[in-house]
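During the reporting period the student researcher (J.K.) took over the structure-prediction task from the postdoctoral fellow and processed the backlog of single-chain submissions. One of the processed entries is reproduced below for the supervisory committee.
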Amino acid sequence: MDLKEALNYIFNGQSMLFTGSGFSLGAKNLIGNVPRAGELVTCLDRETGYDSGGDLGYAAEEYIRQKGEYQMVGLLKSLFTVKEITKAQEAISKQRWLRIYTTNYDQIVEIGGRKNSLARHSVTLSDQVNDYKDLKNEVIHLNGCIDNLTVDKLNDEFKLTNVSYLTRDFQNSEWLDLFQFDLKDARAIFFVGFSMRYDLDIKRLIAMEAYKDKCFFIISPKESDKNKRQLDQFGTVLPIGTEGFADVLDKAYAGFTPALTKIPPIYLCFKEYSPRHSRPKIKDKDVSNLFLRGEIDDSMIDYSIHEPSTYLYYINRSQLSRAMTLIENGCKRIVINSDLGNGKSLFIKGLGILLSGSGYKVYEFKREEISVSREIDEICSIKDKKVAIILENYSSYKNVLKDLKLRCTDQVLIFTERSVKNDMAIDALSLQFGKPAEIDLNVLCDDEIRQLIAIMDKYGLWGKSAARRNDQKYDTIKNYYHGSLSSVLLDIISSPNIIGKYQSEISKIKKGAILYEALILILINRYFELNLDLEMLSVAIDDDLLNNYTLRRDPIIKQFIDFSNLEINVRSSVFSEAILKNVIDPVAIGRVLIKAFKRINIHRGEPKYKRILFSFLSSSNLIRLLDRKGENNQSILIDFFEQIRDCEFCRNNPHYWLQYAIVKLKEPDYDMANMFFKNAYSFASKKPDFDTYQIDNHYARYLMENSTRNIDDKNFMKTVSRVQDILTEPSHLKDTKYYPFRVAQNYLPFYKKYKARMTKKERSTFAVYCEKLLKMIDIYLKSSPGYSHRKDVMNAKKDLEVIIADVANTK
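J.K. obtained the following C-alpha cells:
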C-alpha cells in the first residue's frame, strides 16, 4: 500500500493511530516542556542522585523510596498535565481515526480533538472493554492517563516500568483483544513517534506478515539507523517527524475527494464462498489428508458433486438434494446435526457450493470478533442477490444468534450442531427463528455407503480388509459400524501404521515444552470445536507463537499449522481424538488444559474467550478425552477442576459446579457430588431466568445412583418419585430431550435392588413410571429418528420394557 492510499483511509475513518513517546515533543506542561520517556528517567535520576542506567522502573522506584508516593504523583502531574500543544499535534489529533492507542501519560490527543469539536475520551487498561469498544473517539492509554492519576493508581493502573513489562501487562489485559481486532479491521495503521526503547515490544504485538503492508511508522528524521532497521521489518518507515506528517496530511486532505462508491467492507467474522477454481487433479495425498486430518479442498468437492462417478473424493450425501429442495421451496431455516466426526463440516461445504452455484451469495461464519454486528448488518443489507448464512456449532454463539435475529429478513440461515447439544438448544433456536427443518447426518444411507467403499477402494484405505468382497465391506459399514462415518474413520486413523508414524514424529518434540503444548492444544481445539485462531492459541499457552521461529521451522508443527495463512490445519475431530487418545500423554493433556484455562480466564470478558471456557468445562468431553482402556485418569479430571476453581469464571458459576458434580459422580464420590449440586443450584438461583434443566436431570441421575450403589435407601419410593417428577416435568415434556433417557438407564438396577422390598402397589406404581418414560422415548424417536442408533436410548427402552414385563409377571 502506498502512502496516498493510506492517507485516504485516514480521511474515510478507516485508519488506526498509535502515538508513542516522540509524539509529545513540543507540547507544553505546567512548568515547561512535556518530557519524553528518556527525559523522565533523567529528571527522576537528577532528583534522587541515583544512576538508574536509563531504566524507568528503577528510577521511579528510587524516587518513591526517597521522596514518597504523594510527591511522585505531584511531580508527574506537573510534568504531564498539558496546557499547550503544537499545530502538528492538533492536525493529527483532529482526524477521524478508527481507534487511537497511546503509550503516553498526557492528553495531547484529547486536547487536539476538543479544539476541533471532537469529544475524545481517555480510557485505561483498568476500564472495561465492553463499555468502550463500539465508540470511535476514545484514546486508549496503555500506561495510564495523567488525568486519572492518584496514589492508589500509581502502582496499578499507571505504568512506570520498562518496555518488556509494559508489553506483558498489555498482553495480559482484555484490551489486547480489541487491539488485535483493530489491527485486522483497520485499512491502515499509523505509529507516530514510536520508540522501540521506551514504548512497546512491537514484535510481540504485530507479527503477522499481512499487517506489514498497511503499517506506517512516522519517526524523527534524526532517529538512529538501528531503530529504523528494527521498525522496517514491520512496515513502511517515514522519517519525517510529527511536523512532516502533519504537513503531508494537510496537503493530502486539500486534494481529497470522498469515494462515490462504498468501499467494500472487511469481513473478519465471515468468509464468502468463492467460485470454483480450475479443475484440480486428485492425488492420493489429497484423499488421505481429507480422511485423516479433515483438510478440505473446495474445488475437489465442487467437481465431486457435479461428477460423482468419475471424480471420487467426496461422499455426496443424499440430504444435500433434500436441503436444496427445501430452500428452493421457500424454507429459510435449516439445522444440520450429527455426532462428532459424522460429516457436518463436509456437508456444509457441499451445500455452500451448491447454493453458490445457484446464484446465492454464501457467507460462512468463521470466528467471533468485535465487528460481528457490523458484518451481519452489511450482509443482510445486500439486496441484489439471494443470501445464505452458515453458522456452525450455533449453540456456542448466542451473541451472533441475537444479531442474526435482529437483522435477518429473507436470508437463508443454515445452522449446524453436534446432536446432543442440538437436542438441548433446538427449542431456544425455534423460539428465535421459528421451527427449522432438521437434517440428521449420523447414519450413512445405502448409496452413501457404496460411495465410501468406492473411494476407499480407489485410494487403498482398507488396509487388512482390502481383499474382502464389496458385499462384506458393505456389511461391515452397515452393521458393524452402524453406518457411522466417524467409526469408519476412527478405525482407519487408529491403525498401527498411522498411529505408529505419529508416535514417532511427536516423540521428537516432547522435550520442547512449548511445541508439545501447542500441538496438544491444536488437537484439543478441534476435538472440543473451540474454533481457536493462532492469536487465541498464543494467549492460551502464554507464548508468542507468531514470532516463535523454532515453532515455525519445526517440520512436525508445520503439518498442523499453515503459517503462511496463519491457520490451524487440523480440521478433523476424529483425527484429533485418535492422536490425543493413542499418542499424547494424558498427564500432559491435563497440564495443558489447566494452563490454557487459567490464561483464557484473563480474557473472560470477551465473548469468544468466554465460549471457550464453557467448552473446556464440558465433563462429557473431558471424560471421553481421558477415557483410555486399562487406564484410570480420574485423578487428572479432579486435578483440573481443583486447579481452576479459584478462576473468576468458575467461583460463582453454576455450570462449573454442575460439571464438577458430574465428575464426582464418575469417581464416585456421592457426598461431594451432592454438595456440588447444591452449589450449582445456589448460584443458579442468583441468575435471573436461569434454566436448571441440565442440573435437574443430572441431579436425578445422582439420586438414582446414590440410592442404588451407595446407600441402603429407607425411602426408596420417595427417591424414585422425586426422580420421576424431574424427568416428566410438564414444562419440559414438549422438548422431547435426550437427557431423561440417560437417567432412565438407572431404573433397572434400582428395581433389581429394591424389588423384594416393594409392595404390590409400589411395583405397579414403578411400572407406571416406566410406561410413561417409554411413551416419551417413542415421541422422542419420532421427532429425532436419527437417535434410534444410540445405545443409551435403546438400552433405556429395553430396560424399561424388562421392568414392565417383570411387574406384570409377578402380579
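The committee noted the following: The chain has four domains: 3-29+86-254, 270-442, 494-651, 691-811.
J.K. will present the remaining backlog at the next meeting.
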